[in-house]
Design a protein that fits this description.
By secondary structure, the protein is α+β, with helices and mostly antiparallel strands. The chain has one domain: Gcn5-related N-acetyltransferase (GNAT) (Aminopeptidase). Helix content is 37%, strand content 24%. It has five helices and five strands, in the order E-H-H-H-E-E-E-H-E-H. The longest helix is centred in the last third of the chain and has 15 residues. It is globular, with a radius of gyration of 15 Å. It binds coenzyme A. Coenzyme A (COA) binds next to helix 2, strand 4, helix 4 and helix 5. Coenzyme A binds next to helix 2, strand 4, helix 4 and helix 5.
Length: 141
């Protein structure tokens, strides 16, 4: 698998993934994202230092998902989504391992947040070698 830095040309592919009902379900933000809003997000993400968006590529330049790294203080957040046609073949786990290598290269601590009942994601992060912090609970207003 190759992690290819995303460009504005990937906007439609990334929006397709973002609008996938399964992907949407596991996002914290549950709003329907308009094309304009998505484009704005991409422009912002691609020009923000410490924010990297990748297209997950397999075989001969076949895009199968997206991954991202966002530096937040001393941590680097890993997030990903595999396109629905490619889930369940081990690609999510391979992608996390590849993202982890890039995350470690930043010198920051790799970190990810996953909804409690997102079994596929939990299993993928576990299989890639990451471990949860069971002693932490998130609070919000
Ligand atoms: C999470 C996600 C990236 C996993 O990608 P994937 O390519 O399907 O994952 P893999 O094939 O590598 O499977 C990883 C593990 O999860 C398990 N798994 C896969 N789909 C599953 C499902 N629907 N329910 C429970 N376990 C599942 C696999 O058996 C495997 O477990 P194992 O390593 O113990 O055998 C993918 O499901 C996805 O894009 N989901 C929507 C977006 C999302 O939730 N992103 C994560 C938030 S950061």
């Amino acid at each position: 698998m190759k992690l290819v830095p995303a460009t504005m040309k990937d906007s439609d592919f990334l929006l397709t993934i973002r609008r996938d009902p399964v992907v949407k379900k596991w996002f914290l933000d549950q709003r329907k994202i308009s094309k304009a809003e998505h484009k704005e997000w991409m422009q912002r993400a691609l020009s923000t230092p410490g924010y990297q968006v990748f297209i997950l590529m397999i075989r001969h330049e076949q895009p199968c998902g997206r991954g991202s790294l966002i530096i937040k203080g001393k941590f680097v957040e890993i997030a990903l989504a595999v396109h629905k046609d490619y889930r369940g073949y081990g690609l999510g786990t391979i992608a996390i391992k590849a993202l982890l290598r890039k995350a470690k290269a930043t010198g920051k601590i790799p970190w990810a947040k996953v909804k409690r009942d997102n079994r596929a994601s939990i299993n993928a992060f576990l299989s890639a070698g990451m471990r949860p912090f069971p002693d932490l609970i998130e609070f919000r207003t």
